[in-house]
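Repro:
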Amino acid sequence: MCADGAPGYRATPWSQHVLVWAVFFLMGSDLFLIPPLLPVMSEQFGTSISATAWVVTTFGLAYASVSPIFGALTTNRRRREVILLGVAVMATGVIVTGLAPSLAVALIGRVIGGLGGALVGPVIWAYLAESAAPHERGRAIARAAAAYAGGQIVGVPLGTVLAAGAGWRWAFVGLAVGFALAGTMIAFRLREPPRPVQRSRKRSAMRASVGLWQMPTFRLILSANSAAQTARLGAYAYAGAIFAEQFGFGTGVLGVVGAVVGLGSFTGSLVAGPVVDWWRAGRRAEPALGMGWAIMLAASLALATAADEWWLALIGFAASAFAGAAFFSTSQVFLTTVTGSRRSAAVAWNNSALYLGTAIGATALGGFGLGSLGFVLTAAAFGLFAASVSGFLALRLRR
């Protein structure tokens, strides 16, 4: 039994974590591959950029709408079984998107992918928290977030190069193959974490999941995380269009932009891990740390979306990715700590808030012209709201 009451290994099984990191790597590639391909997909489907951006929004809405339900219903299921099912559903969604003859079919593929992500995401986060040694939980979660960002660093450039040479559909074929390989490795090698399995009815699990909303701390964590990811991922959804239309970048070069921004996310995740563990060791409240990340996020997005030089915009997007990833890792560690045995359901709600934020951000920013004052202020305002909620939560915890 761990120090905080959660079961776990005596030492963190990093070799096991690598297996699920591979899934997060592919999920990151899938999510962040879309923005650089928006101009090409828009041209082929004969639709506007804002209409094509719904391939981002539908994934987020599908994920957000069912993640809490899936999280509650799979709480007492074997982690490996749920992960494998989610990987299979995501692979199906990727294939449908890659073969889509129209935007409507592509949207169906993204919905299927969102359902798969809603199955696999919360279970992996719960698995990491359950299997990690208590004093390394921050590192375990942050490294998984870094793997997610790694998909943007490596997967996105490879995908955009493939798209530039053979067509955007082949990028999705590559993702499908990756999911198949990852699922095979997990099926044969992933071990279940030691945890007490409570046999409860589905209705009871749903009540326990919904009951989390009675916790003020839980509500504030989700509000702050949703706002932060609305700012970060909502703005990034239009990064490809910004660099293509305002700075004349081609599809292949946009992959490099995605890699640089992904490096920001990767670094932010890795830096956040030891920082969070150090912060917690000093008995300081994680939301206070999150407030600092959110302020940095808002300032970086203002630079990214208002810059009239490509290199300034790139610095802004990379810095916002760093701050947004660090914020997410910080809030995820705090959430899995305060919710105890209900962490799987709590993470499902938190991931739902993240993807709902992505959908809200893409939709809200789509109402403004790229680089317009409304676009800039809206992106920054969401980041400042996340900072305000985090600050309020930090003060509340000190009482």
